[in-house]
Amino acid sequence: MIKKLEELAGQEREELIRFLRRLISLKSYSCHEEKVAEFVEKTMTAAGYDEVIVDQIGNVFGRIGTGKNRILYDAHMDTVGIGDPASWEFDPFQGKRKDGVIYGRGAVDMKSGLAAIVWAGRWIKMLGLEGDYTLVVAAVVQEEEGEGASIGEAHRQGFIPGMEDGRIDAVLLAEPSNLELKRGQRGRVEIRLSAQGRSCHGSMPEKGDNALYRLAPAIIKVKEMEDKKQLGFDPVLGHGSIAFTRCISSSGSLNTIPDSATGWIDRRLTLGETPGSAIEELEKKIGGGIKFEVEHTDQESYRGYHLKMPKAFRPWLLDEDSRLLRAGKKTYEQLFGREGTVSTWVFSTDGVYTSGAAGIPTLGFGPGVEKYAHTSDEQVEEEQLIRAAKFYAAFPMFYAG
Ligand SMILES: [Zn+2]
Predict the structure, then answer these.
(1) Please, which residues bridge with residue 70 across strands?
(2) What is the three-class DSSP state of 309?
(3) Predicted local confidence at residue 228, as pLDDT
(4) Which residue, 41, 87, 106, 385, has most beta carbons within 10 Å?
(5) Which pLDDT value is given to residue 311?
(6) One of 78, 147, 180, 190 is an active-site residue; which one?
(7) Contact of 391 with 173, CB cutoff 8 Å
(8) How close is the Cα of 105 to the center of ligand 1, in Å?
């Protein structure tokens, strides 16, 4: 099986690279993924997937098989913006190819992972690698706006074909991992702080109650919490962290004392911490009339579906001895002839829902180096793209046994 897969991967190398470059050329900012969705749907259909659907949200799902073991592959179709176009050496939407590397927005986060999982289905079909498993390849929307939101909604609503009852045995996330096996990540929560005061003219500040001054001590205390490492700790995922990232006031002009001030905190959660425990901790340590709330998002998908969710994401860690991690390691060894590296992610993924909230065993493995994500030299090595696709084509057989 491995030998045939190697041969086919060699023959199809150029076609897979072309597929990735086309995906990069189709701009797909969050809530505007329709062109990529249509292209992915067409590619899955042409590859002979048993069922291909676009759900009400706009996610594309391709199913192969109806076997007992249910495996979900997950990649997001959206990308972040490009920032200042002048900071790009190559056109971010060209899919520039140079010396075995592909450049552009989404090259690493995560159109290469998306291309590889979609193409793996094609190879499974071409080589007849179906077994006692149901594989669904998911291309989801709006991950960059709220990880876990679209896959979570599809899972809860029964939109995932072949898995409508909600049972999924294993999730494989194709986010960039430099081809390492990722077994967890910290969670996070976006917290809004608000302070109230009383406005008056800026020439007589003593007549009012400046809400910014009420908020200011909270900013200092947040810094102290970070400096003194007063947050949770886990030996694998490390410390929780906290950062004050934005502050605004209601001041109607530059000579008005503001009657309200609002700030935001980016709080990363390690194992043992939850969004709720993080808020309680702030209330205890800062208090002082400041109100703490979890930030929410309400985004309309390109199909007009409202995804409402709190920006609160739980940490997760896959058991070292789990069946899923063992299958991942075995696939890696059989394909690449050595032991795979197991580590954890620094950034956040759909695993906050699949594992953190839904409790489904979740593993990460994807092409590309994480540090290039969201940068203007976003890039992926072609060889990593090919290797990842081979891994995804072989993995279900090793998982199903
Ligand atoms: Zn990503």
Answers:
(1) 134
(2) strand
(3) 75
(4) 106
(5) 95
(6) 78
(7) no
(8) 11
291 C-alpha to ligand 1 centroid (Å): 32
Question: Which DSSP helix (H) or strand (E) runs through 39?
Answer: helix 34-46
End-to-end CA distance of the chain: 14
Radius of gyration of the chain (CA): 23
Domains delineated in the chain: 2-185+315-400 (3.40.630.10), 188-300 (3.30.70.360)
Low-confidence ranges of the chain (pLDDT < 70): none
How far is 380 from 104, CA to CA, in rounded Å?
A: 9
Cβ atoms 170, 71 nearer than 8 A? yes
Query: Comparing C-alpha atoms, which of 68, 75, 65, 52 is closest to residue 135?
Result: 65
pLDDT, position 306: 96
* Residue linked to tokens 């001054």: 213
| C-alpha to C-alpha distances, 325 to 140, 180, 330, nearest whole angstrom | 24, 12, 9
Active-site residue (options: 143, 175, 273, 370): 143
Place of tokens 């971010």: 92
State the distance from the centre of ligand 1 to the C-alpha of 97, rounded, in angstroms.
21
Say how far residue 83 (Cα) sits from the centre of its chain.
Answer: 20
- Please, what sign has the CA dihedral across residues 307, 188, 104, 389? negative
Q: Respond yes or no: is residue 78 known to be catalytic.
A: yes
For residue 49, report the distance from its CA to the centre of ligand 1, in Å: 24
Residue 145 CA to residue 35 CA, distance in Å, equals 18
The rounded Å distance from CA 94 to ligand 1 centre is 20
Q: Give the residue among 330, 305, 321 at the shortest CA–CA distance from 397.
A: 330
- pLDDT at 285 (0 to 100): 93
pTM above 0.90, yes or no: yes
350 C-alpha to ligand 1 centroid (Å): 9
pLDDT of residue 166: 98
Residue type, 115: A
Q: What is the enclosing helix (H) or strand (E) of 214?
A: helix 211-227
Q: E strands of 158-284, at which residues?
A: 170-173, 181-185, 187-196, 200-201, 233-234, 238-239, 241-249, 256-257, 260-269
Residue 128, classified by CB atoms within 10 Å of its CB into exposed (0-12), middle (13-18) or buried (19+), is: exposed
Phi, psi of 335 (to 5 degrees): -85, -40
CB atoms within 10 A of CB 249: 20
For residues 354 and 149, give the distance between their C-alpha atoms in angstroms, rounded to a whole number: 10
